[in-house]
């Protein structure tokens, strides 16, 4: 990807998401890790990612 022309602000956050009901197979995981964020350029253009 090309470098952006203007300075930008990046905010990220993450966490664990857990299933409400446990799965019948105890070997399988009932949660996963997620990451989400938003990029905001000085010109107001923004892009979300996850």
For this entry, give a set of tags.
0% helix; 50 residues; 3 strands; mainly beta; three-stranded antiparallel sheet
What would you note in describing this structure?
There is one protein chain. By secondary structure, the protein is mainly β. The protein has one domain. Helix content is 0%, strand content 52%. It has strands at residues 8-18, 31-41, 46-49. It has a three-stranded antiparallel beta sheet with strand order 1-2-3, with no helix packed on it. A hairpin with a 4-residue loop joins strand 2 (31-41) and strand 3 (46-49). It is rod-shaped and about 50 Å long. The two termini are 18 Å apart. The mean pLDDT is 80.
Number of strands: 3
Q: Characterize the overall form.
A: rod-shaped
Q: What structural category characterises the helix and strand content?
A: mainly beta
Please, how many domains? 1
Distance between the termini: 18 Å
Q: Report mean pLDDT, rounded to a whole number.
A: 80
Approximate helicity band: under 10%
Strand order of the largest sheet: 1-2-3
What's the Cα radius of gyration?
Answer: 17 Å
Number of helices: 0
Q: What is the helix/strand order? A: EEE
The major pleated sheet works out as: 3 strands, antiparallel
User: What proportion strand?
Assistant: over 45%
Low-pLDDT runs of 5+ residues are none
Short description:
The protein is mainly β.
Helix-strand layout with pairing:
Layout: E1 8-18, E2 31-41, E3 46-49
Antiparallel strand pairs: 1-2, 2-3
């Amino acid at each position: 990807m090309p470098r952006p022309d203007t300075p930008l602000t990046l905010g990220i956050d993450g966490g664990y998401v857990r299933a409400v009901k446990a799965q019948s197979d105890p070997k399988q995981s009932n949660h996963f890790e997620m990451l989400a964020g938003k990029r905001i350029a000085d010109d107001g253009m923004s892009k979300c990612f996850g």
